[in-house]
Predict the 3D structure of the following.
Amino acid sequence: MKQTNNRLTTTIIKMKTKEYFLSNAQVRNRTILAVTCLLLFFTACFFTWKWLNGQPKEQGALKPLRKVLDANESIFSTVLFSNSNLVKTYPKESAVQKVRVNGNYGLQSEFDPANWTLTLIKNPGDTLHISIDDIKKLPKTEIIFDFKCIEGWSQVTHWAGVRFSDFVKYYGLNEQAALQFTGLQTPDNEYYVGIDNKSMMHPQTILCYEMNGKPLPLNQGAPLRLIIPVKYGVKHLKRIGTIYFSSNRPPDYWYERGYDYYCGL
């Protein structure tokens, strides 16, 4: 028994740790190497920055940066986008009552909603003028989603209006919607966006005339604005004055100032 206990006795093994010592010369050499690498890194950054700032601009952005934005657009529009990919929606009670205004471009001039009509350019020489009452006759759609602004904030907000796809169907715009882009402008032409028609025809895109169950206030784009949940807020044009279609990119306010044209989520 005693022999067995001895066999079960735990033996403590001391691990020997090797210690390494650097000579003063080795410390000096490693320090010189680290400082040299750091200087080379900062030098490369400086000359890259200098080269970049010497490049020509293309639509408000330096040309290499514009190429990166265009590459991002290609990925988002061809690989990630789909009508079956819906933006997450929320119950009405989740929507904020005090809705933040994401800019007032195109809203500065005096405006009387009673005199407003939507100018719809179907083709050159074929223009319709549509009242808000005409639009309200179409099937109503509500959307409660997380509105995202490029400034970095977001809010769950509640909107209602007419699906753009229903608007296209009612006014016989299938041929126009088959083009690549839609252009929208405010009545004073001070703010304007161009949007790919795949996104415009997304089932959650609406021509909006209500917010939180009430008519849009003026600072939110009354009487009609765009709500397009698959895009950042800069594309949600307020106070739509004109809608037209194009096979080429229409002018876009923030694109001309260096932003991404697609602005997709």
